[in-house]
Amino acid sequence: MKIIISFLSIFTCAFCFGQSDWSYIGSSVNKMDYYIKDIRKTYKDDVYSIWLKIEYPEKKVKNKKGQWTTVAGNHTISSSNINCTEKETKLDRVIKYSNKGIVLKDQTMYSEWERIIPESMAEAVFNFVCGEPE
């Protein structure tokens, strides 16, 4: 019994602190929360590799009895590159998770560099990684 309680307490604490290594960037107008981690400079000057997490808001759905209920939103984790000199971004991989943590889709992207749109969450990510423009 002690082993079971110890095992459960370890995993409970792991879930309590699971968000701690993600840095909060902000919330979009659609109420999606953006987090970032593992910012690493690549082999090229001013190009950084990052992991980005987007948490979707709760939503109301009808259950089997036809009653409305609120369920937690899904989340997406993606691997991207940010070019601080050119103000561009490139997406490498996107993994979509259910609200229970089940992988719904894991897709490798072969995207080209794209300019970052002003006043977007991509620009907020850019400013977090590269610093605010002067």
UniProtKB/TrEMBL annotation:
It comes from the Bacteria. Residues 22-131 form the Surface-adhesin protein E-like domain. InterPro entries: Adhesin_E-like. It holds the Pfam family Adhesin_E. This is Surface-adhesin protein E-like domain-containing protein. It comes from Chryseobacterium artocarpi.
